[in-house]
Structure formats: structure tokens, C-alpha cells
Amino acid sequence: MPDADVDARWLEAAARLAARARPSSRPNPAVGALIVRDGQVVARGWTQPGGRPHAEAVALATAGAAADGATLYVTLEPCAHDGARGPSCAASLAASPLARIVVGCTDPDPRTAGAGLGALEAAGKNVILMPIPSVEASLAGYLRQRREGRPEVTLKLATSIDGQIALADGTSRWITGAPARAHVHALRARADAILVGGATVRADAPTLDVRLPGLEEQAPERWVLTRGAAPPGWRALAAPEAIGAMADIQYLFVEGGAGAGAAFLAADLVDCLVLYRAPIVIGKGRASIGDIGLASLEAAHGRWRLADRRRLGSDLLEVYDRARCSPA
User: Fold this and answer.
1) Looking at CB atoms within 10 Å, which of 46, 209, 253, 298 has the fewest?
2) How far apart are alpha carbons 216 and 9 in whole angstroms?
């Protein structure tokens, strides 16, 4: 008899594997898949660059004869629609020698929603749907796009102990240390797009690139929050509420400044807040967030949940979310 706890652990492992597909799988979701036989992993797969092949197709091809009688753990329901580059994953899995298929999340894409699971069940496969939080978190950007028509938004702040992001004259390099800055670059590498306010672009001319060995080519698209024209190399977003028009972007990383962060918070469009707090006190400086239209302290409570806290060198990283996010 299969153990539900064991199945959940393998699904969580598949969710961690899915991180390898971000952001290169765009416009498709970042999916992870494992094929397990007699308690051993015989194949792994994650969505390939450009969205194909899919994770389960990679794993099945890798497993070969070892798939006979094995269990596939996949984070998202296998697609049910044939494409120009081959048959659906549901059709391929239905014809495979796999004994069990454990799925972590149904696909809201109307071409698949329920049809992938149905095709597998019709083929006589033992199919189990096991929704768990870590799987949904690994698909947050895709699910947000499909369900709400907008990307998952992460707001990053790097502040002093007293909540300042710069001296009064605007000097801000560097508030945090090298480990925290490296962590920011790792988050940039996993985002589809990065956004700052127009004042930040004018004052700092930030490159917003990824300066980590091996990840230099993964710099996200650059956006600026402005009602005017975007500078060369940037794309303009007139207001936070317009993020639904950002095409196939699943993960948006908002880096600042105080005006941009406040605008997204005021519009209630921040899903995850990543705060780097340096052990310094600035006093009179520039606050990390501008006016968000808060009418009372009571309205401020209950919005955020501490999801993670750790040391990065001498700095403190705190991650807050409202439902789900997995920034690290």
C-alpha cells in the first residue's frame, strides 16, 4: 500500500527540482518530475528552455525501461493537448509502462484542466491528485497568471534597522553586505521581469543585471514605472494595475524605490515581501516606502505572514507572504 507521507515527500522533491526551469521555461510553467521505482529515483525532468520538452516527457525518456512499474511524481497535471512538437504528455504517459502517477496540482489551462487526469484514468492508470503547499508555491507565477491574469509580484527592500534605504542626500551604496547583494542577484535570475520607479532610473541609471558566475545571461526584462516614455532598453508600465498587460510574464521582481514599492502596496498587488535589514542606523534619511494610503493601524494588521528568516553575513533576511512564495 503506497504511503501518503512518502508520496508527499517525493512531490516536494519534484517541486524543488522545478526551480531549475525558472525562468527559462517561459512562457510555460516551471514543472518538475521524478520517476521512482523501489524507493529509488530512476529519472528526473524539468521543463526545458522555451517550454518544451515538458518535465514528464524528459523524465520518461530518461527512464527508459526503468519506468516499467514505477511511479511518476509531477508537480502539474500533464497536458492534454497535442502540439506542433509532439503528442500531449497525458497521451505519452497513458501509453507508458508506469504503474502510478502522482500529481501535485491541476492545470487551470482550459485545454487541460481535468482532461489530463481524465485521460490517464481512462487508460487505466492509478492516478492520485495530492495538492500540497510547496507544489503550489513552485507554480505561483503560472497559477497567478492563469487565475488572475497577472504575474506573481515580489517586492524587495534593503534597509537600515530604522527602515531607511538611503542617506538624506540619496547615497545608498552599500547599505547591505556582499552576501545579501548576491542573494538579490539570485532572485533576479529567477524573475521574468524586474521593475523600478522612474525616479530610481533617473537618479541611479541601474543596470539591474545578474552578476553571479554562470548566471550573467539570465538578466530579466527591465521595466520602469512611469506614465511617460521608457528610456532605451526599458519597457514602461503606467501603473501597477496595468501589470495584466505584461504578456507572458509570470514573476515580477519590484526593486524600488520608495514610490514604486508604495504604489504596488497601495494597489494591493504585492504577493511576497523580501526584506534585507542591515545592522546600521541612519536616522534622518530616505524611508523605504512612501504613502500607501493606510487609513488606520488596524488596517495594517493581518496582511503579512513571516515565511522565512535567516542571516546573510551580518544582514538579516526576512520573507513575508500573504499566501505563498518561495524566493530562495
Assistant:
1) 298
2) 33
Of 55, 54, 74, whose CA–CA distance to 130 is shortest?
Answer: 74
Distances, alpha carbon 95 to alpha carbons 37, 67, 92, 147, 268, in Å: 18, 12, 5, 31, 46
Judge whether residue 326 has pLDDT over 80: no
The CA distances from residue 146 to 82, 103, 108, 120, in Å, are 20, 18, 6, 23
Q: d(Cα 150, Cα 165) in Å, to the nearest integer? A: 28
Closest of 207, 198, 203 to residue 230, by C-alpha = 198
Active-site residues, by number, are: 56
Distances (CA, A) of 193 to 19, 78, 173, 221: 16, 27, 23, 4
Residue 171 CB coordination number (10 Å): 12
Helices (H), the chain: 4-18, 55-63, 89-94, 115-122, 133-138, 140-148, 178-189, 198-204, 258-266, 297-300
> pLDDT per residue over 102-156, tens digit each?
999 999 999 999 899 999 999 999 999 999 999 999 999 999 999 999 999 999 9
Q: Residue 117 in contact with residue 103, Cβ under 8 Å? A: yes
Per-residue pLDDT tens digits for 264-280: 999 999 999 999 999 99
Would the pTM of this model clear 0.85, i.e. be above it?
yes
Whether 251 contacts 150, CB under 8 Å:
no
Interval 236-272: pLDDT, tens: 999 999 999 998 899 999 997 888 999 999 999 999 9
Radius of gyration of the chain (CA): 22
Q: How many CB atoms lie within 10 A of CB 71?
A: 21
Please give the pLDDT value at position 44: 97
Neighbours of 214 (CB within 10 A): 8
